[in-house]
Amino acid sequence: MSAFLPPQLFHNARIVDPATERDERGGVLVRAGLIVDVGPHLMAGSGPDGTQEHDCGGHVLAPGLVDLRAFVGEPGAEHRETLKTASEAAAAGGVTTVVCMPETNPPIDEPAIVDFVLRRARDTAIVHVHPAAALTKELAGRELTEIGLLQEAGAVAFTDGTRAVTNAQVLRRAMTYARDFDALIINHVEDPDLVGDGVMNEGARASLLGLHGIPREAETVVLERDIRLARLTGARYHAALVSCADSVEIVRRAKDSGLKATCGVSINNLTLNEIDIGDYRTFLRLSPPLRDEDDRQAVIAALAEGVIDVIVSDHNPQDVETKRLPFSEAANGALGLETLLSAGLRLVEAGQVTLPRLLHALSTRPAQLIGVPGGQLSAGKPADLIIVDIDFPYVVDKLKLHSKSKNSPFDEARLTGRVLKTFIAGRLVYAYDEQ
Predict the structure, then answer these.
(1) Which of 73, 198, 252, 409 could crosslink 334 through cysteines, CB 3.0-4.6 Å?
(2) How distant is the alpha carbon of residue 195 from its chain centre?
(3) Where are the domains of the chain?
């Protein structure tokens, strides 16, 4: 479709390319869905004859975001979210590539289901959707899936989603198998036995609220084991979500020793802490739980340093029947696609992370990990672009979100930074409407 578009010139922009740390005034020229030129020399009227021009109004022009962790209900739980509604929420948040988790019904553990998701996304989604396939059959943690066949069918990573593979022998075999395909293994680093009945971070706040706590060791014990298995097998390993200072140190040591180990952090753990739970706000019951402020500051510092590789939305739609319950009975999960960038800009505004570094963790690095050609503004790359007013203030209204479910952790929060337009291969798929 993009091949029939005229050449397009995006000018009067603050170009931010996180892959090269370019941050300057200029423009981007696009032809047939691909970037052909970038720089300060591209101004209004500088394109070839017939060029369609987009005045960016001085706002940020950046590559679209790549979200490595989003839960989508289709197939099997379309009442929570569909590929169509998830993609609309993604576009509104500047996310041009979504990796959907395998926790569907049936789970994405066979090539035919990978194919179904890809076909369904092609027909209904307005952004790129790539499935992550299950690491074990039925997500049961016992029998490995056919990693080679699933990768051939289009799976970009292998994970059991919110379920940690607790059997070390199974994970060792998975890593050994995946190594031969250079496949990415993603594990949820949380020991279900140590979590037990816990529903929030273990500490004084949990005691005050009368809730069972989840110790940091539920995360670090699994992470430490996984890193040792990655060393043993030589596999590419990614810790889905880290949330505390101890985990940061484990990942730092692994990287310093040369292992193929990376990690992600949820936007929730970067921008919220356990105090935000307030009087039992169930939209903030999450896995991993929100930690204390010291841990939050530790993961922010690790992000700025580059120890943490990617930021994810951890988009997990839940309906009112699973959230309008006492805190200890509510389901884990929160929306994240639409507010991912706006929430991340809090860190830029506070001077804790630069804008190129934030965008690197939101686009360049995740694209590299799954081997897709996004996350950078350079000739030959796809024109998956976003125009962002980073100074636009607004209050989140869950009723205006594009997702089917409304469990946003930022409901009624004041955020700054709004995606004005989102383009896929140079084609406009979202434009902000003030009404």
Answers:
(1) 409
(2) 24
(3) 2-61+382-390+414-431, 63-370
- Round to whole Å and give the CA distance between 18 and 425: 19
Name the CATH superfamily, with its identifier, for domain 2-61+382-390+414-431.
Answer: Urease, subunit C, domain 1 (2.30.40.10)
Render pLDDT for 285-329 as a digit per residue (tens, 0 to 9): 999 999 999 999 999 999 999 999 999 999 999 998 999 999 999
How many angstroms separate the CA atoms of 167 and 57, rounded? 54
Write out pLDDT tens, residues 255-285.
999 999 999 999 999 999 999 999 999 999 9
CB < 8 Å & 24+ apart, contacts of 255-260: 255/307, 257/231, 259/227, 259/230, 259/231, 260/230, 260/234, 260/235, 260/236
Q: Which residues pair with 239 in a beta bridge?
A: 187, 263
- Structure tokens belonging to residue 123: 């027909």
314 is a catalytic site residue: yes
Spatial separation of the C-alpha atoms in residues 18 and 26, rounded to whole Å: 15
Structure tokens at 280: 């039992």
The catalytically annotated residue of 314, 389, 391, 411 is: 314
As a whole number of angstroms, the distance between CA 308 and CA 62 comes to 21
For tokens 């496949």, name the residue. Answer: 183
> Following DSSP, what letter does each residue of 132-194 receive, concatenated?
PBPSBGGG-SSSB--HHHHHHHT---B--TTS----HHHHHHHHHHHHTTTPEEEE----HHH
Cβ partners under 8 Å of residue 356, min gap 6: 16, 17, 18, 21, 22, 23
What superfamily in CATH does domain 63-370 come from?
Metal-dependent hydrolases (3.20.20.140)
The H or E element containing residue 106 is none
Handedness of CA 192, 194, 195, 201 (dihedral sign): negative
